[in-house]
Amino acid sequence: MIKKALTIVAMVSCVLLTGCYSLETGNPTKESKQVLNEMLGEWDVKDTFIETDNTSEVPIVPILQTYKIWQIVYSDHRGKERSFFLNNKGEETVPLYELNRNMERILKNEMRRISPDFDIKHLRLSDPYYFGYNGNIDINDEDFYKKHKKIYNVKDFKFTNYFKDNTAYIEFNHDCGQVAGTSSEETRILCKTEVDEFVQKIPHFNGVITVFSNEIVDYFYLQGKEVPVESLESQKGESILEKYENLVRERYPNLKIS
Questions:
Q1: Which residues pair with 216 in a beta bridge?
Q2: What is the pTM of this model?
Q3: Which of 4, 45, 104, 178 sees the fewest Cβ atoms within 10 Å?
Q4: Residue-wise pLDDT tens for the chain (258 aa)?
Q5: How many CB atoms lie within 10 A of CB 226?
Q6: CB neighbours of residue 234 within 10 Å
Q7: Rounded distance between C-alpha atoms, residue 226 and residue 220, angstroms
């Protein structure tokens, strides 16, 4: 009886309250067609789905949001079919978030291919200029195409020059563990050797590698060269990562979007 009464209250509340149900009508495959063509080359919609979420924080007053999901398929630089999903939920003008995650997967696969024994965890692709805006950027802006499209462009992707003259950098963790029969200092040196050998396989590497062993150490690289933490101290920023990003900005002032 109580459950039935609560259901009735919820139904009445949804009639009386506004915003209890929303139907999203946008279509990112049309709105972002130019973007997808530019970034993916040939692509297609493999499937579509309808989802409904209850966004209410009050269980007895459902606030339903119904939206559509598109499964996008395309072939990557190696001819392998890949897919990711777009939806018309939210206010993003372009699918920057999905394109970013898509490129993360491609980079991770490439690095594992050239160095299968190197442990790569929690990889994240970043850019100090504009990804902090949560994807709410007009990707049709001329500056974006001229200066920054390389970050998400898989149509013309080449791993050998991806990081060259590119403000993009990656962050990931590497667990090399404690080496049996060695001291902490010897383990640190062996771990650093692993990292250096890995970085040498990636031309113009930009990235931050956090190494877990008997201690946790961050190693910073810009265009394939290690950036000592001491040299980052003169950069602006509260955290060492902010200082690194400012160093990237200084290296490529011509790429800045106002």
A1: 212
A2: 0.81
A3: 4
A4: 554 444 444 444 554 444 466 677 888 898 888 888 988 999 999 999 998 888 777 777 788 888 899 999 999 999 999 999 998 886 555 677 888 889 999 999 999 999 999 999 999 998 877 655 444 556 566 667 677 788 888 988 999 999 998 889 999 999 887 666 567 788 888 889 999 999 999 999 999 999 988 788 999 999 999 999 998 988 988 899 999 998 988 887 766 654
A5: 15
A6: 9
A7: 6
